[in-house]
Specification:
Two copies of one chain form a homodimer.
Chain A (H helix, E strand, L loop, with lengths): L1 E5 L3 H12 L3 E6 L3 H11 L2 E3 L11 E4 L3 H10 L6 E4 L14 E7 L16 E5 L2 H14 L3 E3 L2 H31 L8 H10 L18 H10 L4 H17 L1
Parallel strand pairs in A: 1-2, 1-4, 2-3, 4-5, 5-6, 7-8
Antiparallel strand pairs in A: 6-7
């Protein structure tokens, strides 16, 4: 399968590496930056391209993994393609690609970092397609990558993307704030790492609402007051502590 | 080593099981509830006790794992002990036990659930002692349990406890809110589980501030607006979304 990759960020990089490992032939990598196109192209043995007019029109799959607001711009320029054109965005409607003959969405519900390998067995892929025939093809490709596969329409995909902001982006920010508290007192983040793993592992077999712990859920107001006092001098952290403690009490 | 356990909750249960597995002889379990004392005592082959006057005075270790505000009450009643008396509380000063000859703190920086086994290799133990001799004994006991061991004074222990509220309790609440969003649209929490694991694993080798992703950190205000619109009807979630997005922007 000949693949053209439009984009050179984290998602583009990990998809290219995974597709190549499963036998796909990634022939071109486009990026608006010459340099970024070159880096990813070198990594996977493809041709770097920074002019959309030079994109090969005979590939079987065009993977558009760029910033959300660039998808529409690119699809307005990239014409004359009969292969499969998919984007990888959680927040973008499938309709942005409806000018193509064969189009769909290939949304990985996972967080990608350039510095870290990713096991595609652990990447849920959310598929949407402009036709049943395209869905069949997307499922074949997703199946090769090995992770769980879901059919998800644009409306539900946006909800998934929003829930991921809570379960990933905001979670990481809570780690950041925990570390801010430690740093103030020269304590090492390493001490928190086992707790962070166990907190994630606990919800792998249970629902989070069943395993909530801490002062807020047991209405231990004395401890909450002590914590707010420790945060004197950090009004931003105090506000977040109060807002989230109240939210836990409302939920339980 | 003869051990008396004061308390029958999650922490008491997991410590008793772990100490017994390492060869300790847990002879008594006290709880103010007859029933709870009986359940844990049966589990580990100890004698259940619900009257503090009946506590054996000859044990080597008295582990006080009860609610924070009960520690002072218990230590006011439980007298005439020359063995080691320790509490397991993050938020309670060591001085609450200073009436004893040999006293200290044995604070596990981990989240415990009754329904889930725990590997003590992954439980950081934060030790504080009333004397060097007691610290030596605490380190011996902690060493047998196998996890990382830290010397932490009362002031720093309270900071650790606070940071754990962010990195564990608030994190779990973010999982809860992620699931609230999914439930509204009949999407399954299972879809988020791989993302949750990867988010935790990412900070095992890196600092969270280096791996923050999402709309807020990249100042993608269009996506933020769309997310806030999706949360119309859930003003509490909107407020949290806004507060945390602002905090991410201030941090980065």
């Amino acid at each position: 399968m000949k693949v053209v990759c439009i984009g050179s960020g984290n998602v583009a990089t990990h998809f290219c590496v995974a597709l190549k490992a499963k036998g796909a032939d990634v022939i071109q990598v486009w990026s608006k930056s010459d340099e970024n196109a070159a880096v990813l192209a070198r990594l996977i043995g493809a041709q770097p391209v920074s002019d959309l007019a030079l994109i090969d029109k005979t590939a079987a799959l065009y993977l558009i993994a760029v910033k959300d607001d660039a998808i529409a711009e690119i699809s307005a320029v990239l014409k004359g393609i009969s292969g499969l054109v998919v984007h990888t965005s959680g927040a973008t409607d499938i309709s942005v690609l409806s000018g193509y003959e064969n189009y769909g969405v290939f949304y990985p519900l996972q967080t990608f970092s350039k510095s870290r390998g990713i096991d595609f067995n652990k990447v849920p892929l959310c598929l949407e397609a402009g036709s049943e025939q395209v869905m069949k093809r997307l499922k074949e490709i997703a199946g090769k990558l090995g992770g769980p596969v879901y059919e998800v329409d644009s409306r539900k995909r946006k909800i998934l993307h929003l829930s991921a902001v809570f379960a990933c982006n905001f979670v990481n920010h809570m780690y950041v704030l925990g570390n801010v508290v430690l740093n103030e007192h020269r304590l090492d983040f390493e001490m928190l790492r086992p707790l962070i793993m166990e907190t994630a592992e606990k919800v792998q077999a249970d629902l989070p609402v069943n395993v909530q712990t801490g002062p807020a859920v047991r209405h231990d107001e004395q401890t909450e007051l002590k914590h707010l006092q420790l945060l004197t001098g950090a009004p931003q952290l105090q506000e977040i502590y109060q807002t989230l403690s109240n939210s836990i009490k409302k939920t339980h």
